Amino acid sequence: MLAAAAELFARHGYHGVSTRDVAAAAEINEVTIYRHYAKKRDLFRAVLESQLRQVNLRGDLLAGIAESGDARQALARCFELISATLSPRRELLRLLQFSVLELEEDFDPLLRRYLGEFVEVLARYLDPWVSRSEPRGAQSRALILAIVAIVVSHRPLLRVCAGDGMEPEATFRAYSDLLAGAFPE
Fold first, then answer.
1. Residues 63 and 69 sit within 8 Å (Cβ to Cβ)
2. Do residues 120 and 164 lie in contact, with contact meaning Cβ atoms separated by under 8 Å?
3. 185 occurs within a structural domain
4. Each residue of 148-160: pLDDT tens digit?
5. CA 179, 74, 60: angle at the middle one, nearest 5?
6. CA–CA separation, 181 vs 30, rounded Å?
7. How far is residue 180's CA from residue 175's CA, in Å, rounded to a whole number?
8. Contact by Cβ (8 Å): 41, 110
C-alpha cells in the first residue's frame, strides 16, 4: 500500500491522488486504507516518513568531507554526498517538493526531524572548514540547506531553463563554486 501510494503521490502530488487511486494501484479495498489511516493526509505522512527513513549518509563520503584539503573541497564533497544521497531517490525528491508546495506547515515537524538531523550531521563535518576559513558570513547549516535546496530542485529547473544539455555534475560544480564564494581566496 505504501509503495503504491508513494509512486502515485510522487507522480501526481497530494491533490492529484485519491485514496481510491491508491487502493486500485495497491490492489486492495479502499476500506483497508482507512483501517490504517484515518485520512488521506495520514497516508501521505506515512509515505513521506517511510521514504525519509530510508535516507542514509555514506560513511566514505562523510570521511571525504573531513579529509578535504580546504574549505572549497569540503563544500564540493558536501555536494557530492548530498547528491549521492538524494538524487537517486526521485520519489523522495518529488514527495518533498509536493509536501512543501501543496501541504500546510503541519508537515514541518516531520521534515525537521529527518532533514534536520541530516543537515546537522553534515554541518558538523563542514563546521571545521568554515571556522578555519573565516568565511564572510557563512554558516555551515545555511550552506548545507542551500545545497539540499539545489539538489532537490535542480532537475526540474534544468529541464525548464537549460534543456537536456547540462550534466548534473557540471551544474553541481558551478553551484559549488558559487557557494564557495563565501570563502576567501
1. no
2. no
3. no
4. 888 887 777 666 6
5. 135
6. 53
7. 8
8. no
Distance CA 3, CA 47 (A): 8
The answer to whether 51 and 57 are in contact (CB under 8 A) is: no
C-alpha to C-alpha distance for 73 and 35, rounded to whole angstroms: 51
pLDDT tens for residues 7-64?
A: 999 999 999 999 999 999 999 999 999 999 999 999 999 999 999 999 988 899 999 9
Instruction: Assign residue 30 the CATH number of its domain.
Output: 1.10.10.60
This prediction's pTM? 0.80
Please list the alpha-helical segments (H only) found in 103-183: 108-133, 140-161, 168-180
Same domain, 73 and 149: yes
**pLDDT level of residue 168 (50, 70, 90 thresholds):** low
Q: Are 95 and 48 in contact (CB under 8 A)?
A: yes
Domain, as residue range, for 28: 2-50
